[in-house]
Amino acid sequence: MKLALLLSLLGVAAAANYEPTWDSIDSRPLPEWFDEAKIGIFVHWGVFSVPGFGSEWFWKHWHDDLQQNKTTPYTKLMAENYRPGFAYHDFGTEFTAELFDPDKWAELFHNAGAKYVVLTSKHHDGFTLWPSKYSFGWNAKDIGSHRDLVGELADSVRQYTDMRFGLYHSLYEWFNPLWLQDKENNLTTQEFALGKILPEMKELVEAYKPEIIWSDGEWEAPDTYWNSTHFLAWLYNDSPVRETVLVNDRWGSDTHGKHGGFFNWADKFNPGVLLDHKWENAMSLDRNSWGYRRTIQVSEVYTVQELIKEIVETVSCGGNILINVGPTKEGTIIPIFQERLLQLGDWLKINGDAIYSSKPWTFQNETEQAGVWYTQREGYVYASVLQWPENDLLVLHRPQVGPNNQILILGAGDASIVKWHAIDDRIEVNLPRMSRISAPWPWVLKFTDVTN
Hints:
Mean pLDDT: 94
Distance between the termini: 55 Å
Strand order of the largest sheet: 5-4-3-2-1-7-6
Order of helices and strands: HHHEHHHEHEHHEHHEEHEHEEEEEEE
Shape: globular
Oligomer: single chain
Structural class: alpha/beta
Number of helices: 13
Radius of gyration: 24 Å
């Protein structure tokens, strides 16, 4: 496809600052707001929420099992509970969202301490949560809820909170005939990429002005098939969000950890060490799925302790964390997810100084004292302590402190200033009795004068 046609499809202006090459695209600095935000909420919602079984990959698993004539939990569920000939598209009319209250969602996410929200605008089944003219008859406005779900949540997030609004978008669609034809042609044709995906993404950006485009579904084709650099050049040069938008690294089978904006690498990525490029840990409260499951068990949900541990480790190593919930087809978020998010919000109200706008410190964690992770902010060093030490005595080897140093424990009221002693190569911190601490687990120490 000639460059002129690509530019015409995207409406790229002649005087562009970023060229459609990775060298140029990768030279764009990430907007500062993202690193300061640290915590986002991911929302996987769509037609897959109707069967609410297995995962958001329900259609693909069910289809493949049928093709292979297998008896599996997917084929068994459908054979025993749905009429013969029932197709995945029939679930679309049942995606009703009649209880969806975008204001309540926005309030919940804000109270969880999130600074940005990323909603699935379209997953791999191709169903769009906005009235896309490139998905006629297979979108939330035409069938099911008959609502513009993207637009409603975007409006609530922006009107009632200070959170940023972003959108997940899948590049490929499992069974779209145009995609299957291009795949059959060994990607020598680009009918799907040029006729569907590029204009669809432009429509999404112009209509809803997302400040994150969280791309996915890239792995079966290189970035040249998706024409990713051309889209990103338009996004950075000419789109209505060109100054504040950022993207991840899922723009082709060859771009993970190499190109784009912040790096996702893989789902639930948490390296446990400091990386030299901004990254994000996308994880789900449900250990087994991103979408809603009717069969979910309490044991399959992250505890608040596990969730905060994940956050502390991620932020200490320079990452952001994107915490996923899967709403029901009616548009509700199940109580156990709400509880986890509100527990997180309570912790952040006390300990947020160690998280928001923080930077990685010289050392990310203690090696001899397990479960202590460090961040720094505005000249202070923070140590998040995941396990209360035996006899209330915490031994640290990393910080070297100055003569005016104080150690405070956040959320301790009149017990906030704690006693400590420097002995040889370590600091011994005498914590107050746990009963005097109002802050929820884990506990954060603030160092006021650290020299290293």
